[in-house]
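Backbone shape codes:
===
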Amino acid sequence: MTIQDILSRQWSVNQLTIMGPIGKMTADNARFRLTPDTASAAFIALHTGEAMHRFANILFNHDSGLQPQAMGGATDDGRLLDLAMVNQVIQSGFELVAAHIKTTTDEQWTELIATPFGELPRMGVLQFLMHHNSYHCGQISQALKKGSLY
């Protein structure tokens, strides 16, 4: 089994984990927040999708051209986001990274790459992205279960 195979499987599991709570978002609960100061479930989901596109650029030098709306200091203004657009950004992010995982050699996974956090092994940066996805998955899940409109 190659590193590509292992990382492809891990990425698939990460996608399944994330899509569980995201699949439960509706127009009725997408704006739920845990507190008035936290972002809504839909905003966090959009941020998660945009981060995958950003990390594709860091990991694989692939600029998807996506214009972020939920990154770089953006704040949630409370409006209902287009859930089809949010899901499309998330799905395309997963697909983009999955395609690059399959074409990245085992040797490339151990290379150091420049990141905003310093030089890190490419595989470690992908692991950080999976952690980032899982972290926000928990936030989305809690907002949908315990949150409300503020």
